[in-house]
Every structure is written in C-alpha cells, then in structure tokens.
Amino acid sequence: MADPVHGVARTDRSWLANWWWTIDRPIAFSAFGLIAIGVLLSLSSSPAAAYRIGLSEPFYFFSRQSVFAGLGLVVMFVVSNLNPRGVRRLAALMYLGSLLLMVAILFMGHEAKGAARWISVAGFTLQPSEFMKPALIILAAWMFAESNTVDRFPGIPVAFGLYGLAVVLLLLQPDFGQTVLITASFGATFFLAGVPILWIAVLGVLAMAGAWGAYLIFPHVADRVEMFINPENADTYQIDRAFHAIAEGGFWGTGPGEGRVKHLLPDAHTDFIYAVAAEEFGVLMGILLIALFALITARGLWRSLRLGRHFEQLAASGLFILFAFQAFINLAVNLRLVPPKGMTLPFISYGGSSMLAMAFTLGFALALTRRRPGAFEVKTPFEVKAAQKGTP
Amino acid sequence: MSEPFAAVSQDLDGQRPVTVSAWAAVGQALQFEGERKQVLQAARYRLIALLSIFMAGFFVLGLRAVEVAILSPHAPSASTYAAAEVPRRADVLDRHGQLLATTLTTYSLFVDPSQVWDPRETREAILTVLPDLDVAKLDEALGGKGRFQWVARNLTPKQKQAIFELGQPGLDFKLEERRIYPRNTLAAHAMGYAGVDNKGLSGAELAFDQEILAGGESGQPFQLSLDVRVQNALDDELRQAMDKHQAKGAVGIISDITTGEILALTSLPDYDLNDPQSAEGAAQFNRAARGVYEMGSTFKIFTVAMGLDEGVVTLEDSYDATKPLKIGGRVIHDYHAENRQLTVEEIFTHSSNIGTAQLALDAGPKTLQKFLKQLGLFDAADVELVESARPLLPKKWNDSTAASVSFGHAMSVSPLALTAAINALMNTGRYVPLTLKKRGAHEDVQGRQVVSAETSHAMLQLMRANVVRGSGSKADVPGYRVGGKTGTAEKSGAGGYDRDRLLSSFAAVYPTDAPKYSVLVILDEPKGLPETYGYATGGWTAAPVVGRVIARTASFLGVERRFDVPEPAKAQSLAQWRAQNDAIAQAVTGGR
Asked: Which terminus of chain A has a lower count of CB atoms within 10 Å, N or C?
C-alpha cells in the first residue's frame, strides 16, 4: 500500500526505497538545504567575483557551483549507500590518492596567496587536502577500533602515523587552518576512542606547543594572531569589511543582490560567504545557517552515540565533528570571534573540492548512521514512543 | 511486520517497559553490560560532553550573529556624511548693485574608500577625466580611513557626467556651493574670498562672514560700499603706474570722507579671487590694511593741523629753515632746501622737514602723541577688515622721536589708518570710521570731533594751495579743485634709511570747497624715469596717478566740474582764510 505522503511505501523493498527509509532524513534534508542555500548565494556573489577576475560571463561561478552542487548530491547519495566495509575501503583509497597528490603539489602545485594547495587534474583545480580530512578520520577511527580488539593490533601508532604524515604535508604547503582542523578532529576522535583522560591532557599540551611553534615558525600565523589581538595596528581589511557587512545587513538585510561586501572582498564567495548571506538576507539567514549546521551536528552525534560497533561509532562521530569544527571555525572567523584562517563553510562556500569533499564526508557519515539490523544498540526516546504508537 | 530493522525493535520492545521517558532512554543508552561494551559506554559519555560543547558553541555563534547584526553600531553611510549641509552665502554687490560675488551649485566628487575595490583602477579611471588631480593626494583619498574622502571639489556638470560614466564603485557626488567672483581680480583684497566650505577667509568675505551667511539664508544680497566703476579706474591706473615705475607694490584707497565709506580699495600685486591658491605670498598680502609703513611727508598734514588746532602756531608764523636742524645727535635736512625763513603755508607746500620738526618741538612730544592718538593712529584702523594691522609706534616719545614723527618717520601706520586720519581733518574735523559696508541713504553718520572746523578749513586750503603752487601740482585736474599732500619716505634698511628705496605717496581730497572724497595712492619702491627727471618722489610718481584717477572717476561720483571757483590766495592770517572761504562758499551757492 502506497504511502500517500512519501510516495514510497515502507514495504517497497527496492534499493532506492530502502535507501529512503534507512537514511537519516533530517541530516540529509539539512545537507540538501545547505547546498541549495549555497547555490542561491553563489547567484548573488558570482557576478561580482566574475567581474573581479575579469570574466565576461557573470554567472560563471553560479554555473560551476550548480554543477558542483549536482555532483555533490550524487556523490553523497552514492557514498551513503556504502556499508561500513565499503566506507573503510573508499577512505583508504582517498587517503592514498590525496596523499600522493599532496606530495605532487610540493613539486608541481598551483600557488595562490602564498601557499601551494591546489593541483590541476584533468582541467579541474583540485585541493587534495579537502579529501584528505574525512579519509584520515575514518582510517584513524578504524585503527583506534582495531587496537581494542583481542589481537592487539597496534592501531594507535598507525593512526598517529597517518595523522603525522597528513600534518607534515599540510604544513609544507603551508596550510595552518587545515592543520588545526585535522588536529582538533583527530584529537576528538582519539578522545572518543576511550584513552585515559591523562593522555588527552598530555596531547592537548603537545597541540598547544605545536600551535606556539607555528606562531614562531610561520610568519603569517604570527601576523594573524597579532592582528586578532591588536586589530588597530594591523591590516584587517577582509575581516573588517566582512564584519561591517554583517552589521550593515541588520535584521532584514539589504536585499538579494544589494550587498556591497561581495564587491570588496577577494574571498567573498568562498571564506566570507556568511558575510554576504547576512548582509543581503539579514540576521534570519545567519541564524538559519547556524541552525542547520547545529542540527546536522546534534543529530549526527546523537545517532553516532547509539551505534553499537566501535569503528562505526568512532568514524561517524569523527566525521560529524570534522564537519562541525569546519563550520564553526568559518562562522567564528566571520563573526570575529577567532583569528582569521582560510576555511570554507561546508556546502555554502564556492568551490568544487570543498563541495565534493563535504559530500564525501557527509556521505560517509550517512552511510555509517543508516538504520540496519544490529547497528544501533538503543533507540532514541522518540523512536521508542513511535514504536509504541505504531504497533498495529 | 516487514520492517528492515524490526528485529531490533522487537528485541528492544521485548525487554524494555513501555513507559520509558525520553531521559530514561538516554540513561539506557549509557547503561550496558559486558566487558566489550565498556569502551563504547565511556565513548558515549564523552560524546555527550562533546555534543554539549558543540551545541554551546553554535548557540554562542547564534547570539553573536544577532549581536553583530542588530546590536552593533552601524557605520554611518557615506551619504550621511554627504548630506551635511554647507551654508549658502549671499551674493555680494557693489553700492550700485553690480555683482561682486555669487554662489553656483556644483558637483563635488567624494569617495567612500571602504567601497573601492581596486584603488589603482579607480585612480587611473578618475585621472582620465580629471588629469590635473594630484596623484599622491588621490591615492591617499582612495586608501583613506572612514567612509568619506574628498576627491575633487566643484566639478562642472560635464565632468560630473564623465566621472559617473566611469562606473567605479565607491564614488559619489555631493551638491556643493561654489563661490564665484565674476570680476576676478577687481578689488581682490577688499572683496577677499571664501573657501570651499563656504567660510569667508579674507577681505569682506571674512569681515562680513556672519552677515553674508545670514543673507544667504534669507536671500538678501549683501552690499559693499565699493563702486565697481571707481574701483576699476583705480585698479587700472595703479597697475599702469606700477608697471611704469617698476614698483614692488601699490596701494590705492578712495573714500567718502563724510560717511567713511570706502569706494575703492586696491592693493597690488593682487590675484584672481576664483583661484586664490595660485596667488603668491606677496599677492595675498593686503598692503592697504595689513601693511604698515613709515608714510613720510603726508604726516605733515597732522603736524600742521596740530599746530593750528592747539594754537602753537598761526598761519602768519614762520620758522627758520636756513640750516639743517640738529637734534638728538642727528641732523634733519630738507629735501629741496630753500635755505630761508618759511611761513607755515610754505613749510607745507615746500614740505620742509626742518620747519615741521621745529613746529613739533614747539608743541612738544606729549601734544603730538595725544593728537595722533585722537586721530586713531595708535590703533589698527577702525574698519571691518580683519586684516587691519596695528601701527608700529616708537618706544619712547622724546624731542627726537617727535621731530621724526612730525614728518612721518619713526612710526609706521597702515594706509587705511592714514586715510581715516586725513579724512577726519578734511571732514570739518570729525573722525568717521572707515567702512566697507554701504551706508543707508538716511543713515546718520556720527563723527567724533578731533579738530575745530576752522582748522579743518585751513587744512583744506593748505591742501589745495599745495596742488596749485606746491609739490602736488601733478595731481591737479582742472575743475575738480583737488587738494593734496605728497609723501616720500626713505625706507629703512640695514644701517639707516635708504635713499634709493622710497615709499612714494599722495594723499588728496576733492573738491576742496565742498570736501567729499579722499584719494590715497602709494607706490612701493618706484623707480625714477627720464620724464620725471629721475625723481621717484610722491610728487612725481603718485600725484599724477591721483590726478588721472580723479579725472576718470569724479563724474561717476557726481562731482561737478567747475572752473568758476577762485583759488585760495596766499593767505596771511586765519581770519583772511575764513573770509576767503566764505567768499568761495557764496560763489559756489550763487553759481547754482
């Protein structure tokens, strides 16, 4: 009997219907909403960005972002169909692939803004570090889980080896922002893996020391921290413009297409897309974006919490944490709560690598949190109630 | 039941009571048995902690988003700055309604630097339309702080449109008032100019700033006492004389001695009021008001008037001018030594330093000091001009200084102060402050009596006699009864007075039978010419200018040209002067 609302009956056992009924729909819908908003905002920011780099086609960035959005949805859908083993295998492949590309970057990278982070692959400028992040988290979760099995696999050293390799390559680019993000996400996953709190404390101190080292070694890191602490004697052009744009937007916003900040900032369509959104659509759009990210994070972590297998739980939470950290840092930079660092807003910022890597990330996370026999050890309180009512 | 995860549900439904509350379910999620589950259980506690932290973080972001968007002070927009009103200034007219200054609405270009995307591109674009802009200043504006920086003021509609069509972000226009002086250099120092912010900066524009602004509000033009026709003739003649004698500068003042109104005021060199920035320092200097000079022999007018008014001498008295006068360790000579006994009239018409000094010594320094003070020569000239400068006075008043001051040395006054003082002596002895503002038709001008009417009459006759048969003959214009006194002062240089650097002047009044107008002309360092036999004195350089100016302007001023007025005879006594004056007055009245 067909469900009048969904059009797909629960009794439909086709794989599409199966996907529909097993996937976590709130997360999937939120992700879809974010991607749609991203396309909408690129419609607004694209003409300015296109004019800025001298393109004659004003909707160049919009067209490309639409294609990326379509590809991203496909990738997310396909990846979310994987089983945990498939997730592990694909992650391993991704890790190896992006590792090779990041090594290649050192020799043939495409340099921009003082850092070599991009590589041209078949006419497509790719940022492999984006793909490295989810792959590393999954592999690390796998290794942590393996270390808890009876055969005493040395998972922890292997995981740290994988992490160290990625960090070294990132710092060679240099990409301090991604390093912080990977370190935080990796650290959180490690924390969830059940190590004693003391270890965590020691590692936290080490991370602090690393940050201090970066402050000392990399001049641009020192600059940015200095700038954040003493804004009056530093060039805070981008961050100031973004901040004022948000203030200018106020409650109602200046109206679609009426914003000014997109004309002023080189990174308006990428790192400062939140400022564009808040300026043109007002604080409600800002709150909507924050709420969507918060929803995916909360729902994702809540689902992860109930997973019954160690690897799945660790990997799923690690991926949601990665996603949440990235969104949080970008938003906090836009709202001038933390020192600026180059980081995209998941699904919203313009960029193919960012979009596809985020599609993989959430695709993996959705795959791991799908409903399937034996995966969840407990139900959420809501499902318990639904089950009570729904009993025929 | 065919749900894919029915097994799980049933499994759990079978074990758990049906009245599970939401929070109890969380508890269930954390309660497991079995060794293998301990790690998972610990992870769940930690996950809950992380989840809480993230939610708190996102909550803070939400609050911050609201704070930034709604509670943070919005930067005032550029148009807010642009809307600030600049006061409008009234038109300035001459005494007959001729336009001297007006205000046009123009477009001024400003930039909101925060909106400029590529300062270099914007700069290059602006320079295609306004190639004369200072590039360094333009860069400063484009990269400036805040949201408002001027780029160019007072553009024409054509320039405005060209800038508009550049399509550069951040550029905008503000309607502005631009002050226009249609007569360019005419009366430049009297008129003065207002800056781009419509604030009066010099001359009448500064002196009457408040009135002109008030007039701008009410739409009332502001009328000056100047007469464009008279001013034009004075400017022209002074320019020619300056050229001819290669003088450093020139001053001319024509005033109505009964009302104190200044009809023309010229200070050369001058400048175009529409472009004051291009004026050199000397051109910006108002010699008539701000310059103070040792005036030379024109001061003898004061010394002689003092002698007559204080009863120190009568016109019959004479002084010994056979030899130079020794006083205070120095010697006073006459320029054209007569080497004989001179009457007071002769002292005046031959401009004898020796005679004047003796007169001053007879009166005493105190009397001279008091007299000059009464004539306002110890203060800045009483006129609206802010530029009006204070005199330089001798530190001590003794016989030596009195002797020097008696023929116009040892103290420096401004040409305006000199004019006001001479005017008083010619205006039946009443001191009337000078003014640049047109007086009302029925305005009662109250003067301050400084000498008696008799003294004034006598001085008028002396002035006229000096033109008829004295040093001032070159100022005479047949029919206009011009009286006057020459002045030639050697300028003080390093180590005493310099014979070659003169300040040559002529102070005139006409018509002497019914005195109405005074004309003062001063040439700064004129050179002698073959036609003046090498002389650069007041009588040879300034007096002819006064004559030509009077010839050109007397008809504008409504002075009747008459040839039936008897000239003053060589008078012997004050009584004779008076009788003669009455006869003249009768002749004038009868002639009408």
From this structure: C
**In this structure, are B380 and B490 located in the same domain?**
yes
**Number of folded domains in chain B?**
3
DSSP letter for each residue of B245-269: TT-SEEEEEEEETTT-BEEEEEEES
- Looking up residue B503, the CATH number of its domain turns out to be 3.40.710.10
Residue B125: inside a domain, yes or no? yes
* CB distance B259 to B445 below 8 Å: yes
What are A354's two structure tokens? 């960012």
B363 and B386 housed in the same domain: yes
Task: Judge whether B112 lies within some domain.
Answer: yes
Whole domain around residue B169: which residue ranges?
A: 82-224
Query: Is B278 domain-assigned?
Result: no
Are B392 and B412 in contact by the 8 Å Cβ rule? The answer is yes
B75 → closest Cβ in A244, A313, A381: A244
Q: What is the pLDDT along chain A (392 residues), one digit of tens a residue?
A: 444 455 566 666 787 888 888 899 999 999 999 999 999 998 888 888 887 777 888 888 899 999 999 999 999 999 999 999 999 999 999 999 999 988 888 887 666 655 667 777 666 778 889 999 999 999 999 999 888 776 678 888 999 999 999 999 988 887 888 888 999 999 999 988 877 788 888 888 888 888 888 777 777 667 766 666 665 545 567 777 888 888 888 888 888 878 878 877 777 888 889 999 999 999 999 999 999 999 999 999 999 988 888 899 999 999 999 999 999 999 999 998 888 777 889 999 988 899 999 999 999 999 999 988 777 765 554 554 555 554 44
Residue listed under structure tokens 């270099």? B120
Segments in B37-134 forming alpha helices (H): 37-66, 78-83, 119-129
Contact flag B54-A193 (C-beta cutoff 8 Å): no
Choose, from B108, B202, B267, B297, the residue flagged as catalytic. B297
Tell me, yes or no, if B2 is annotated catalytic.
no
- Coil, helix or strand for B119? helix
At B166, phi and psi to the nearest 5? -65, -25
Residues 289-318 of A with CB under 8 A from B: 290-291, 293-294, 297-298, 301-302, 304-306, 308, 310, 313-314, 317
d(CA B84, CA B147): 14
Domain boundaries, chain A: 15-77+174-388
Q: Could you give the angle at the alpha carbon of A91 between the alpha carbons of A86 and A92, nearest 5°?
A: 100
Residues B418 and B464 in one domain: yes
Whether B201 and B300 share a structural domain:
no
Q: Are residues B154 and B258 in the same domain?
A: no
Q: Which of residues 18-47 of B touch A (CB under 8 A)?
A: 18, 20-26, 28-29, 32, 39-40, 42-44, 46-47
Integer Cα distance of B584 and B570 in angstroms: 15
Whether B491 and B412 share a structural domain? yes
- Give chain B positions within 8 Å (CB) of A193: 39, 43
Q: Kindly report the CATH number assigned to the domain that includes residue B96.
A: 3.90.1310.10
**What's the ipTM?**
0.88
Which of B:91-150 have CB within 8 Å of A? 114-115, 117
